[in-house]
Amino acid sequence: MAKIIAVANQKGGVGKTTTAVNLSSCLAYKGKKVLLIDIDPQGNSTSGLGVDKKKINKSAYDVLINDVDISETFVSTPIENLLLCPSNIQLAGAEVELVSTISRETRLKNSLDNIKENFDFIIIDCPPSLGLLTLNSLTAANTILVPIQCEYYALEGLSQLMETVKLVQKHLNKELDVEGVVLTMFDARTNLSIQVVEEVKKYFKNKVYRTVIPRNVRLSEAPSYGLPIILYDPKSKGAECYLDLADEVIEYSEEENLV
Ligand code: ADP
Ligand code: MG
């Protein structure tokens, strides 16, 4: 049975998509069967894996709104073992259309029931908001993985995010757990980055991954080639760190299975 991880933070530009694409790719590279669901209308995970947003046949939109079987949306990616449920700007309409839909928060969860046994991990790349698309993701997920950028105001908005997690736990998904917090775009040359790491560790304690993702220009170049870092530049620091993060995620999921 797949472990379902929602990569979420309502702030934009903190490294959600970079983490979703590269964590998924590294898990698959290590032999896990992985599905990446792009639930952000911007479709950055989709284009970041070389899939042309304009040529998508069926997408996450059809799953949420038209009851299309999610397996009909699957497209292959440059990584064997990694399938993608793509998205494009059409999904922006879903946020509004879902409001008047029955079981509006559980549509993604329901769509995964039949397919989750076919994967080891299902990773969901969330949009930068706490609207119905993110709620669908948190309702479908076992855990939430929060990327935090090592920047000014890094902790801003996190209490709101954690409130949302509590509300989801109370009303929609009792089992939702915090997978972990990953610090992104770390720059060892700045005191600020070091301070942010300290503060985040105070707040999230043992939920912070040992692996910290550095600011790495290769990570920001890779999407324009439609490749995950592990294929674009396997020797880069970015590739090394996302492989380490994948190890931690696997380690953690295996420990859970032992309990
Ligand atoms: P989000 O999905 O949270 O909006 P992205 O993953 O799209 O954030 O990242 C925002 C921008 O920062 C993108 O241009 C991305 O390429 C870049 N970026 C993300 N992580 C890194 C990193 N570790 N080093 C350098 N650039 C990064
Ligand atoms: Mg994104």
TrEMBL record:
Residues 2-177 form the AAA domain. SUPFAM superfamilies: P-loop containing nucleoside triphosphate hydrolases. It catalyses: ATP + H2O = ADP + phosphate + H(+). Belongs to the ParA family. Dimerizes in the presence of ATP but not ADP; ATP-binding is required for double-stranded (ds)DNA-binding. Interacts with DnaA. This is Sporulation initiation inhibitor protein Soj. It comes from Acetivibrio clariflavus (strain DSM 19732 / NBRC 101661 / EBR45) (Clostridium clariflavum).
